[in-house]
Predict the 3D structure of the following.
Amino acid sequence: MAKAATTIRATRDNPVNNKRIASDGVLVETAPDASRLALRATKRGATNFQKSLSVTLPRKIGTSESKAGVTAMCLGQDEWLIVDMKKPDDSMVPKSESKEISATDVSHRNVAFTVSGTNAADCLNAGCPRDLSLAAFPKGSAARTVIGKTEVVIHRPANDTFSVECWRSFAPYLFAFLKDAARDAAL
Amino acid sequence: MTPTKPQPYRIAKRGQLAGARTVSFTFDGKTYEGLAGETLASALMANGVHLMGRSFKYHRPRGVIGAGVEEPSALMQISRAGQNDKARTVPNVRASVQEVFDGLEAESQNRWPTLPFDMGAVNNLMSSLFSAGFYYKTFKWPRAAWETVYEPFIRAAAGLGNAPERADPDRYTNRFAHCDVLIVGGGAAGLAAACAAAAQKRDVILVDENPELGGWLLSDTDIRIDGRTGHEWVAERVAELKAAKNVRVLTRTTGFGYFQQNMVALNERLTDHLSRPDIDMPRERLWQIRAKQVVLAQGGIERHMVFPGNDRPGIVLAGAAQTWLNRYGVIVGTRIGVFTACDSAYAAAFDLAEEGVEVAAIIEHRDTISDDIRKQAEEFGIPILTGHHITNTTGRLRVNGMSAKPHGDGGKEQDFEIDALLMSAGWTPSLHLYSQSRGKPAWDEATQRFLPGKSPQDCVSIGGCNGTDDLNAVLMEALEAVGSQPKRHDITDDISCSGGMIGATGTSADKGKAFVDYQNDVTAKDISLAVREGMHSIEHVKRYTTNGMATDQGKLSNMHGLAIAATKLDKPIPAVGLTTFRAPYTPTTFGSIVGQARGPLFDPVRETPIHHWAVENGAEFEPVSHWQRAWYFPQAGEDMHEAVDRECRTVRETAGVFDASTLGKIEVVGPDAAAFMDKLYTNGWSKLKPGRAKYGIMLREDGFIYDDGVVGRLSENRFHVTTTTGGAPRVMVHMEDYLQTEFPDMQVWLTSTTEQWATIAVQGPKAREIIEPLVSGADISAEKFAHMSVVECEVCGVPARLFRISFTGELGFEINVPADYGRAVWEAVWARAEPLGACVYGTEAMHVLRAEKGYIIVGQDTDGTVTPHDAGLSWAISKIKPDYVGKRGLLRSDLVKDGRRQLIGLKTKDPTKVLQEGAQIVADPNQPIPMKMLGFVTSSYWSGTLGHSVAMALVEGGFDRIGETLYVPMEDETIEVEVTGSVFYDPKGEKLDG
């Protein structure tokens, strides 16, 4: 077996690196790189997998748990999206295979934007049909939905802050959409 | 009127525009002055201008009729001074609602050469030719004339204003919102309901299409609510709403669509009333509201009277005249007549009389009126002729006389000189949104009107649109609607809006031009004719006459038309029916509906991680579904043909590097992964060993090819599935659909990983030499890493999934690396490849290379009616699997019979001729037309490698025609072709090993 002659500097590069737009009451910026796991699991599988995580896996659809830079969002009855901001380059796929889970690395599939400010919800509601009021979508909520013509996962880590994940090739569109929406968020 | 005095019809002390700024605007090139805060129609009338447009069919002179969105006649082309770039001009704007501003430029429509002298008015003289059903009768034959004569003629004559010639430069935005209560209409009812709901701390959105809240209370100066004028009461409510935190008030906002589950669409207009709008401000904002409760408080629309000559400029709705006077201080004339069947017109007449306007006579259609009203009229010295109707009017460009007589035969006709005529046939409750919510209007016999029936959604109608006329009842109803305790107010309102009539007056259903629908020039006689000619449902009458089909959608005309038809049919009104109300309530711009989805935001354009390298290296691109893919990489001086030739040759002789990142990828994981794959694909997967890959075909239930791709088995429980670029989303949905509905017991999960991986194909004899030094953690030698293998390893030090696979027929690899590293790995591969003489190639070369090998592309060589057998892929169908999606379909009689189209190769007799994709194929080019078509060309390219063109085609019984000569008739020549097998290059597959 030949030893690799060439290795590259492992710097991640996405289509919206360091994007940022500030408008009246809205700040949209590209979130830092993260490690991401698409987890599907049986109940037992989820319980076992949880042991390898610093957070507990929330069991109620639309909720999330966050701890030490790791957020686990429950998006379906057997589906979670887990985002680790602390160790962006480490895969969360377990080394040994279990029949009870499907753990798939999607670290590079998604790109996230942080949308914050007093008008952040209005900015997202330019294209997102969900009720993002604090009553309907309180802090900690997470859901797969759409913004404009893009599928997204929206997570609300704080009252005035949203994290919006989309697939990487949709990120330039989503950023342009949010940029336009931010201009109209302060009525 | 003295021409030197500006605004001679303005009563300075009346109305609410005291102290308003004077604005200057033009109408048909002439400059006028108006007051900020009034409408264009009001400002024109202040200057004595009543002639505002021409009707659609007969080009009759028309003035403004109403003071609201129901306006059918005063439609104008509106532009802004200094913005004559023809991009922002708007046709068919109702002068009755357009707010006047400095620099507004209005132009009348549908006239030539000028508004007072219009050549099109000749239609009026020939009106007997243009009766109901005219188009259907006249343009029927000769048949051929439809395309060449009639349609162009009708198209040229149709349409009122001019559409802007350039792209709309303005911004349009969208907002989704949720609320507890959405209240549509900000009149007395809506305001009361909004305040009550706000007091309960409910989230309230209140919308009104006008610039100001208040509705009719702004037009009536006689009302007192608990001692306050209507204005004072409105001001108090508005202040209350402003102070409330949970209330959003949207003015200049129309609720135009009511959909399922209390989804209501609103159109907010932000700049159409401004002289110099901020360019950053959106012109319109579309609101899509999901409301827990909807309160409809839209009020009613006053009907005109149907009588001969009821369309001359100066003939207006009584309520509109009252609005112009009491809001804007404008009188419609100095000596007016009134024709009414409703009490409210008296209030308008008395208000005008207070300002010194002479009222020649009130022609009352009813036989009696209340003593109270009669007494008030006497005090003003106004004569009332009860039980009368108007038989005709005079005046060309402005009404100057009316004639009236008692109902029935005989009776003396009296003539009156007038310069304006007020009319009122009562008020039609606005059921538009209620009807759109799937509500069924119910006929109220007592008041002769349709009212809201049951609400199919959580929706309640209050006030005028609910048929509630008494203001005290309205306010109580409003509070009740939102669950508040209703309370009585002390209200004085001396004249109500009781009374009314529907249908034609006098003999106008049979004689004279009594307009029912002003905008489409439909007369009462036309409706009668339609009934005589067999139209017995209102839906047929409407379409035959075009009654209610203009831009105002019959807001004035529907009830009259219905009543005339019912009378002629001698049926009760509900038996004739009511046409359905559909969105939008008023004309809504495309811009508003399109919102942000224009230009770069029209649709996402997807780019691969390697895209920018391709841009920097001169690639030409082609769109493939949402993706931009590198098409070819021309070098200096090369055209496309030369570049593709070079790329193909280099791949075959040396190697090429290709960005395959757009390929769809799905991770299929779980203990039942192989069993699931067995069900979804035609071939067997259980025996595929981890580390091996296989070509798979996916069918639909009907047995036709749906997608294909290479699938690698990474471990016992994990497959890496690839799909076509365009097929990725639907394949994922197809798989998930079957998993959830047909195979829910299988323990397997699907995850889309298309974008997790950047995919770099390296193909050609030197492929291994290029990548071998970059790979660690795997032995990729020919012996250890055979064709159709997959291994997880590292490439350039990043985790990778490496396939040995070929879509060119050459030795080939596909390197999958996490997408963020895609470009860096690509550059490292290129740094190895370039010195070895390899090239980068694009999708065009990829297509040629695969066509030379007879590899199909789903969607190009298949069209949804091709089975794997038809495509020569029978080898990829398992004969032993008990079941898979499409297995049953493949056995259908049509799919197994002889003579199906089969995919074969074509070689042109003249090797330099390249067939056109889609060209049809026949056996005998000399047969008479229409010829029997045997099939068509699916793929066709010039093959530089082979020195002749190559093509694939679907041809009836193709497999049995190998060696036959067929013909491809083109426009200017017939091309002779030979049927061949579809593999043109290296049929034995010896090159796969380099």
